[in-house]
Amino acid sequence: MLETAPCTDSPLFELPEVVATPHLGAPTAKAQERVGTTVAKSDRSLELGTPWPFAARRRCGDCHVK
After folding, report:
1. Model confidence band, residue 54 (pLDDT cutoffs 50, 70, 90)
2. Would 6 be classed as within a structural domain?
3. Distance between CA 16 and CA 34 in Å, rounded?
């Protein structure tokens, strides 16, 4: 969790070993199910070496979603 969201100027974004992800809030059972599905799809993409389906590409303070 970051103190101010969304953080756009952290030096951590420049480190190749850092993967920054958004905070996921899931107050209902259905939302928790969807979060689980999202995490599973992301993990599977990593295993297969394919792009993350929910990844945001960050460059110098702006965000590009693919």
Report:
1. low
2. no
3. 28
Distance from the Cα of residue 20 to its chain's centroid: 6
Token duo for residue 2: 């970051």
32 close to 26: Cβ distance less than 8 angstroms = yes
Residue corresponding to tokens 């100027």: 9
Is residue 30 assigned to a domain?
Answer: yes
DSSP 1-56: --SSSS----GGGG-TT----------SHHHHHHHHHHHHHHHHHHHHTPPPTT-E
Whether 4 is in a domain gets the answer no
User: What is the pTM (predicted TM-score) of this model?
Assistant: 0.44
Q: How many domains does the chain contain in total?
A: 1
Say how far apart CA 32 and CA 27 lie, in whole Å. 7
